[in-house]
Predict the structure.
Amino acid sequence: MQYSLTFPTGTVRYIFQAGFGELKDYMDFDNYVMLVDSRIVELNNGLVSKHPHIIIHAHESRKTWAQVSDICEQLLQLKADRNTTLIGIGGGITTDITGFVASIYMRGVPFGFIPTTLLAMCDAAIGGKNGINHQLQKNLIGTVQQPAFIFYDTIFLNTLPPEQWSNGFAEIIKYACLFDRALFDELEQNDITHYRNHPETLQLLIERCVDWKNNVVMSDEKESGRRKLLNFGHTAGHAIETLHQVPHGYAVAAGMMIAAKISEHETNLDPQVTERLKKLLQRYGLPVSLDIDTGKVMEVLNMDKKRNSTGIDYILLNNIGEAAIKHLPFPTITQALETYAHAGSH
Ligand SMILES: NC(=O)c1ccc[n+]([C@@H]2O[C@H](COP(=O)([O-])OP(=O)(O)OC[C@H]3O[C@@H](n4cnc5c(N)ncnc54)[C@H](O)[C@@H]3O)[C@@H](O)[C@H]2O)c1
């Protein structure tokens, strides 16, 4: 299946249920360079050896200017010009870096993605946000520019380690919390093993998440309003990830629990909903509490892109499938984090 969607910064062609071997059949260009996660190269012997390619080191500590600069140098050596399409093959780190390099190399070249993690398939590759980290804050430096295509071959997921499946499910649970009560119910009935053993169900799940993300991005590509909802779990999550070196989805899971706890006070969320969320996160192998240094987390939150002088627009829940944006003063957030830090996993 394939379709195209047009956003303010470009038209994206979504190609689902495709095989990497057929990639050439879908490409209307022959001038390209693949930017490939080193792990994908290791796991798939010979996959890219016949293609012009650059190896990407997919680690948060290397989602940096230094790697971007190195990639630009290699692109010059490969004689990449303004008509060269960059194809990012890997997880969210690789797609974020590829989109960012493509946005700035020679003032912008075309690019596309082949996401290879569940998280990148359901979230990171979609929506046009590209970027790299600053040592003080994740994803501080970036652009909004849509890829020309996103090519889905779920065979890559066969090599994904268990913690990366959990990582991806954090974002899937996020969509369920924000928009899709039926999906929340479905996730409660199933588990990772079920989705791994039923490729068609997994395919539908991925396509449903792509739809939810596009639905939001279509109405607000530059995040002036509704797109902020996608930050559910990410405000505290990003700070925890910056400070505590845990995978993105794990930090988001902890962030969703913090947001649910705050929601109990701020939007009268039924505590039973928080309990259901906790059980669901645990069902998908995600942490519901992490040891956090509240003071340091607040320092990072003080530099958050979504802050103003008094506080942060926080994403809360009224109920499953019903989200709310509320401006929270910093002391309220500090207090919630302290309660969370002391509550541990109880
Ligand atoms: N741009 C966005 O809108 C957006 C949204 C969400 C997350 N992100 C970003 O995405 C990143 C997280 O993405 P991720 O979780 O995919 O991380 P990742 O790219 O680091 O991949 C996770 C790990 O899995 C390995 N890997 C990748 N594909 C594999 C495969 N098929 N088999 C085995 N191992 C494989 C990678 O080498 C890496 O070690 C973060 O940097 C986050 O900021 C961006």
